[in-house]
Each structure stands twice: as structure tokens, then as C-alpha cells.
Amino acid sequence: MVEQKRHCVAIGRGEGLVARKGDVLMYVADTARARSLLHVLDSTTHPQALPQELATLAQGPNSDTVPPFGALVPTGDALHLLLHGEVIADIELGGSHHRVSGSSRSLVHETVDPRFDRITICTATTTFVPCADTDLVAGVVPGAGFVLQLRVARASVQQQPPPAPPTMRARPVAGSLTADDGAVYPLDRAYVIGRNPMIDPAVHNASASPISLPDDPQVSRVHAYVTVTGGQVMVRDAQTAGGTYIAAPGDQVWTPVGDQPVELKPGCYLRIGQKILTHQVVAPVQ
């Protein structure tokens, strides 16, 4: 069984979404079509029912609208691997490697040996580069896949990533929003934050990525917007009852944000419900 204390989840650099609910992990390759999958993940109460729910979605009458995805679902002593479309899973166990490929015609469903050392899930058509300093604890973050591994094995991947292929153009990064649960959101894109940000048109048309806070009753379905303009990180509230707040380091009082964009300066904090995000800027390499 996957246990949060024994394993860590490193996020891959690139497009797509990685979601974690409890010990269930999912990678969705197409952000614009992720809504149905994230809804199933969020609405399914018991993990035991999730493999069947995903199979129904991937093989149902609207299967052509379901994007490629990969999921790891622990149920009791079993770990279920589910793949759909051009997604692969590389499984490492005791020095041996086993690759499982998804199918566009059906849902690939296998049971994984729970003694695994590392499982990587990503698309079959891109070079996967993990961010070794990330560890997703909960929520939905941008990413081109993920690596699930034992914490004792993590040191083996703490190295500089290989350079991106010339055909891949990285977007400039203004820093990151780092959550108090360890999630990291690179500030190279816009975000919609809320209990169900997938309903916002900006997320639906892939012009923004979602930050989902599904378990906080103080958070509205669409609660706040984060944009990056000219290196400045701007935040605005979506006219919510709970409000959006910012604070500088050392401040004792949170300042409310209205529906007009307000700058979130480096080192400052953003609070939405119980969630606190910190605007961090990576120091330039000397």
C-alpha cells in the first residue's frame, strides 16, 4: 500500500496536471480536457470504487473526450495501475525495470507489486524531467507526470536535470507559489484557485492552470486569480464571501484583496481559506 510517510511524489517539468487525493495519484496529459477525470477523483468517496469509475469513463460513450491519463490507486494491500492513451508507467523493483503502456482503445489495468522502488508515469512522446525538490502531498499542480518513490531512494535522483531538447521552449519563470503542504506552483502561467477551479473558463480553455482546494468549506468554487505580467505576480479575489488576503513577512495583520489585481511581492504570503502560499523567487545562478 502507498503510504504518504514512506513515499514522496516528484513532479515532472512540462504541461499537464498531477493530482493527489489521499494516497491516490493521477496524471492527466491534457489540461483542457481534465475536468471529467478530476471530477471522478474528487467525487469518489472510497478508493476501491475508483478503478471501476475510471474504466466507465474511459470506455463509455464519451470516451473520445477523455484525455490520456495514468493513475495509481491503493486499495488495501493492492496497488492498481490504470493507463489510458499515450501514457506509460516505468516500474522499478530490485534493480529490474518493467514498462506498461496505455491504450487509446481501452483502459489498461494492472496490479503493481507494493514492494516497488520507483514508479514513473508520464506521456510516451516527451522526455520526462522530474523536479527532484518537489513532493506533492495533496491537491492539483501543473506537471508532465510524476515519480512515486521510497524516501530512502530519493537521494539517487537529487541531481541536475538534463538540458531540455532544442525543440522545447521553456516559459520564463517569475518564481513559484509554495504551499504549506509542500506543493510548488511555478509562476510561468496564470492560475485559478478554488474549491472547483475547473469550472472557470480560463481553466477550461487552458489559458490558466487550476489550484484545487476541495476540502476547505471557506473556499469558493472559484475563489481567486493569479496572473504573471512583466515579472510581477498579481492576485485578485473573485468577489468571494471568504475573501483573499496577503501579508508581508513579519506582518501581524492580513490585508484583504479586492476584485482589482494587487501585486504579491517576492517573500509575501497569500491566504485563501486555510491555505497559505508563499511567493518565492529562485536566486540567479552565479
What would you note in describing this structure?
Residues 1-5 and 153-172 have low confidence and may be disordered. This protein has three helices and 23 strands. Helix 1 packs antiparallel against helix 2 (50-58). The protein is mainly beta and 286 residues long. The chain folds into two domains: 7-157, Phosphatase 2c, domain 1 (4-Layer Sandwich); 176-280, Tumour Suppressor Smad4. The chain has helices spanning 35-43, 50-58, 201-204, and strands at 7-12, 17-21, 24-28, 69-75, 78-84, 87-93, 96-101, 108-112, 118-123, 130-131, 139-142, 145-150, 176-179, 184-186, 191-194, 209-212, 224-229, 232-237, 244-247, 255-257, 262-263, 269-272, 275-280. A hairpin with a 2-residue loop joins strand 17 (224-229) and strand 18 (232-237). The relative contact order is 0.14.
For the secondary structure, the number of strands is 23
Element order: H for helix, E for strand: EEEHHEEEEEEEEEEEEHEEEEEEEE
Q: With helices defined by DSSP (H or I, 4 residues minimum), what is the helix count?
A: 3
- Provide the CATH top-level class of the largest domain: Alpha Beta
Report the portion of residues in β strands.
35-45%
The percentage helix is under 10%
Give the overall shape.
globular
User: Can you tell me the CATH architecture of the largest domain?
Assistant: 4-Layer Sandwich
Question: N-to-C terminal Cα separation, in Å?
Answer: 43 Å
Give average pLDDT, whole number: 83
**Poorly predicted ranges (pLDDT <50, ≥5 residues)?**
1-5, 153-172
Overall number of domains = 2
Instruction: Find the structural class using helix and strand composition.
Output: mainly beta
Main sheet: strand order: 7-6-9-12-1-10
- The radius of gyration is 19 Å
CATH T-level topology of the largest domain: Phosphatase 2c, domain 1
Kindly report the oligomeric state of this protein. Answer: single chain
* Biggest beta sheet summary: 6 strands, antiparallel
